[in-house]
Design a protein that fits this description.
Elements: H1 15-28, E1 34-35, H2 47-58, H3 71-85, E2 94-97, H4 100-111, E3 117-122, H5 127-134, E4 138-143, H6 154-160, E5 165-171, H7 183-194, E6 200-204, H8 220-223, E7 231-236, E8 249-252, H9 255-266, H10 274-285, H11 291-310, E9 325-326, H12 347-358, E10 360-361, E11 363-364, E12 374-377, H13 382-397
Parallel strand pairs: 1-10, 3-4, 3-5, 5-6, 6-7
Antiparallel strand pairs: 2-8, 7-8, 9-12, 11-12
Helix pairs in contact: 2-10, 3-10, 4-5, 4-9, 6-7, 11-13
Keywords: Aminotransferase, Pyridoxal phosphate, Transferase
Catalytic activity: L-aspartate + 2-oxoglutarate = oxaloacetate + L-glutamate
GO molecular function: L-aspartate:2-oxoglutarate aminotransferase activity; pyridoxal phosphate binding
Length: about 400
C-alpha cells in the first residue's frame, strides 16, 4: 500500500513550473537558454509599492493579521471593485489569500463534494483541473478551438451543464491564449447561466488590466447583476502591478461563501504576508499611471511575436486581446522530423525538441487542454523575444 494519499495520485505537477525549472537547470549547466514559460512581468514592482512594503517593515507591521486580510486592504479592494467594475461589496464579502491561486483553491475546497462538476473552458490555466481534483470534484471541459478564437459558445456551455454542475470557472483575458470575451459575448454566456440557478460562477480576472487595442474588460457579475449572489469574483495584484512574488490575491462574493473560505484558510496557511498586504493597499489605492505604458510595451512585444511566428509555414498564431501570452497552432508541423531525427508526433515532443535543439523553452499545448499548440509568454525583453522567434524560425525551416 502506498504511503501517499490517493487524492494526490489524481493530480500532476504544474507543467509551467516544470518548464521554468528545467530552463533554469540548463542555464545553470551552461546552456544558452531563452525561457518563455513563466507568466510574470519582467519589470520591477513600481517604486511606490516597494516603498510601502519597506515602510510596513520599518513600522513593525510584521505580525499576524486577520486570517483573510487587514481591514485597510479589504477597504481598498471594495473601492477597487466599485471603481473599476461597478460592483458594490462590503468588507465582510471580501477575502484575501496568498495569491489568486490560493483563493481559487480555497473556494473549491470549501464547496466541492463527490460528484460535483466544474465546467472549465479549454484551453485553460494548467492548475484549474488539478485544483478541482484535489478538492474532490470532477472537471468538465469545453474545447474552444482556434477557429472560435479560443472562446466557447453559449450552445457549448448549455450542453455541458448537468444536474451535478456546481461551478463555471471563467477566465478572461485568458491564460494561455490571451483571448478576451466582449460584453456581448459574455452576456450570451450569462444568459445561459440564468437558466440554471444551481450553477455558480467562479471568475479569474487576474489579467483584467492587461487589455490591448479596442478590447474592453468586463466580468460576469458586472455584465449580469442577477448573478451577483452566486458569483465569486477573483483577482489579484500579481500581473498588472508586477507583484508575482508578493503573493496577494483576493475575491469578493456572498458572505456565507467568504466565511467558508475563511475557515479553510484558517486551518491551512492563515493570513497572507503582512508586509505584502500593506504593499497591496498602496497598489490598489495609489497611482495607476504606469499601467498604460506597460501595456504599450506588451502590445509591441505581442505584435513582434505574432508577426514572427506567422512568418513560419505550419504555424498559425492569432493576435491576443490581453494578458501576455500567445498560443500558436503547430498543426502544420505535426508529422515532420527535426534535423536530429525527432519525429514531431505531438506538441509536447515539439516543445522538448525545441528546447534541446535551440535552447528556447516554451510550454506545450496539451498541458492547457488543447493541442497541437504551444504557449509563449512575451513578458520579457524585445531582444530575447526576437532571438527566440528567430531560433524557432530556423528550427522549423530545417524540419523535413
Amino acid at each position: 500500500m502506498s504511503f501517499l494519499s490517493q487524492t494526490l495520485a489524481r493530480v500532476k505537477p504544474s507543467p509551467t513550473i516544470a518548464v521554468s525549472n528545467l530552463a533554469m537547470e540548463l542555464k545553470a549547466a551552461g546552456r544558452d537558454v531563452i525561457s518563455l514559460g513563466a507568466g510574470e512581468p519582467d519589470f520591477d514592482t513600481p517604486e511606490n509599492i516597494r516603498a510601502a512594503g519597506v515602510r510596513a517593515i520599518n513600522e513593525g507591521k510584521t505580525r499576524y493579521t486577520a486570517v483573510d486580510g487587514i481591514p485597510e486592504l479589504k477597504a481598498a479592494i471594495v473601492a477597487k471593485f466599485k471603481r473599476d467594475n461597478g460592483l458594490t461589496y462590503t468588507p465582510k464579502q471580501v477575502t484575501v489569500g496568498t495569491g489568486g491561486k490560493q483563493v481559487l483553491y480555497n473556494a473549491l475546497m470549501a464547496t466541492l463534494n463527490h460528484d460535483d462538476e466544474v465546467i472549465i473552458p479549454a484551453p485553460y490555466w494548467v492548475s484549474y483541473p488539478d485544483m478541482v481534483l484535489l478538492a474532490g470534484g470532477t472537471p468538465v471541459f469545453i474545447e474552444a478551438e482556434l477557429e472560435q478564437n479560443f472562446k466557447i459558445t453559449p450552445e457549448q456551455l448549455e450542453q455541458a451543464i448537468t444536474r451535478n454542475t456546481k461551478w463555471f470557472l471563467f477566465n478572461s483575458p485568458s491564460n494561455p491564449t490571451g483571448a478576451g470575451y466582449s460584453w456581448d459575448e459574455l452576456k450570451a454566456l450569462t444568459d445561459v447561466l440564468l437558466r440554471h440557478p444551481h450553477v455558480w460562477v467562479l471568475t479569474d480576472d487576474m489579467y483584467e488590466h492587461l487589455a490591448y487595442d479596442d478590447f474592453k474588460f468586463c466580468t460576469p457579475a458586472q455584465v449580469e447583476p442577477a448573478l451577483y449572489d452566486r458569483t465569486l469574483t477573483v483577482n489579484g495584484v500579481s500581473k498588472a502591478y508586477a507583484m508575482t512574488g508578493w503573493r496577494i490575491g483576493y475575491a469578493a462574493g456572498p458572505e456565507p461563501l467568504i466565511a467558508a473560505i475563511r475557515k479553510v484558510q484558517s486551518q491551512s496557511t492563515s493570513n497572507p504576508c503582512s508586509i505584502s498586504q500593506w504593499a497591496a493597499v498602496e497598489a490598489l489605492n495609489g497611482p495607476q499611471d504606469f499601467i498604460a505604458p506597460h501595456n504599450a510595451m506588451f502590445t509591441r512585444r505581442r505584435d513582434l511575436v505574432v508577426s514572427m511566428l506567422n512568418a513560419v509555414p505550419g504555424i498559425t498564431c492569432p493576435t491576443p486581446d490581453g494578458a501576455f501570452y500567445v498560443y500558436p497552432s503547430i498543426a502544420g508541423l505535426i508529422g515532420k522530423t527535426t534535423p536530429k531525427g525527432t519525429l514531431l508526433s505531438n506538441d509536447e515532443v515539439f516543445a522538448t525538441a525545441l528546447l534541446e535543439e535551440t535552447g528556447v523553452a516554451v510550454v506545450f499545448g496539451s498541458a492547457f487542454g488543447l493541442s497541437p499548440n504551444f504557449r509563449i509568454s512575451y513578458a520579457t525583453s524585445d531582444a530575447a523575444l526576437t532571438e527566440a522567434c528567430t531560433r524557432i524560425q530556423t528550427f522549423c525551416a530545417k524540419l523535413a
